[in-house]
Inverse folding.
């Protein structure tokens, strides 16, 4: 197990380096610069500012300098947010994305898993058809439609929850964004679990267990559930990174001060360090959770481990 984990970590390091390199080169290849909008600056002052931020150096030297700084955990200063570092922007917005994303993912698992299991056990029934139809609707309807409906119903009509904004340690401000973000993931989890469980329940060893008179609950829990979870574990790697990094649409609709809005502003203003910092963070999270998914996959099925 340790050897398998080390091999997966060794494979993740080049992936992160490729993400950093491509992000750096593509961003610097885009036309414009972080100070081009400030046309009132005299050329001498603009040159001085670029010299301060090392933007006058050759590209390879800027890349080497930036690579050294991120190895120290420093994403550098923001070009647009005065007297603010990228680390501070991430430190302020990322916990909000983590809270919303974790609640959304937990809700998706709590709701989607039982729906998928019951649909598999009662396949071709009314429950199966209805649950899968609702799951398809959850996948098809975009978040920017679900979120306003939730606001209209629970914030405007019923006045049970706030329509937006953010207050620390206030669960009422978490519920609507988390539900809107979780809606498509509930559908994905339910459909994945249903398909995987149907396939497992038709396996020879499950039919043998039933032929021996093993109770149905024991067949599902002890024999079918573990292998049926394997496709879901593979899906949860990128899905976890997706919900934790949040949705820019969710942040805009509910007025959340997450890092998604800062990322968009940074991209529009050519804030190189901010865009690179958020991109690297997103990429690192995807690599991390894919690594955890691979480890979980190897726990469920030891055959996937390296010799």
């Amino acid at each position: 197990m340790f050897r398998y984990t080390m091999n997966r970590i060794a494979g993740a390091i080049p992936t992160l380096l490729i993400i950093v390199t491509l992000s750096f080169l593509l961003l610097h290849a885009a036309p414009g610069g972080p100070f081009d909008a400030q046309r009132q600056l005299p050329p001498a002052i603009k040159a001085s500012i670029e010299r301060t931020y090392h933007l006058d150096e050759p590209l390879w030297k800027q890349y080497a300098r930036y690579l050294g700084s991120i190895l120290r955990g420093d994403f550098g200063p923001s070009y647009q947010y005065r007297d603010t570092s990228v680390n501070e922007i991430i430190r302020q917005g990322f916990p909000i994305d983590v809270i919303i994303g974790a609640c959304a993912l937990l809700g998706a698992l709590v709701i989607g898993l039982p729906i998928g299991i019951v649909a598999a056990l009662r396949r071709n029934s009314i429950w199966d058809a209805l649950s899968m139809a609702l799951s398809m609707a959850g996948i098809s309807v975009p978040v920017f439609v679900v979120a306003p409906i939730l606001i209209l119903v629970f914030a405007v009509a019923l006045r049970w929850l706030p329509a937006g904004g953010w207050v620390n340690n206030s669960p009422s401000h978490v519920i609507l964004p988390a539900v809107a973000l979780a809606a498509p993931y509930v559908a994905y989890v339910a459909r994945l679990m249903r398909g995987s469980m149907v396939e497992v329940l038709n396996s020879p060893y499950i039919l043998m267990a039933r032929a021996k008179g093993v109770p149905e609950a024991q067949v599902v829990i002890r024999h079918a559930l573990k292998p049926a979870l394997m496709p879901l574990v593979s899906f949860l790697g990128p899905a976890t990174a997706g919900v934790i990094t949040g949705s820019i649409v969710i942040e805009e609709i509910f007025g959340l001060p997450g890092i998604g809005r800062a990322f968009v502003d940074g991209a529009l203003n050519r804030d190189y360090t901010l865009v690179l910092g958020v991109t690297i963070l997103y990429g690192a999270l995807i690599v991390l959770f894919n690594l955890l998914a691979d480890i979980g996959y190897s726990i469920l099925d030891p055959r996937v481990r390296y010799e």
The mean pLDDT is 81. Residues 86-121 form the longest helix (36 residues).
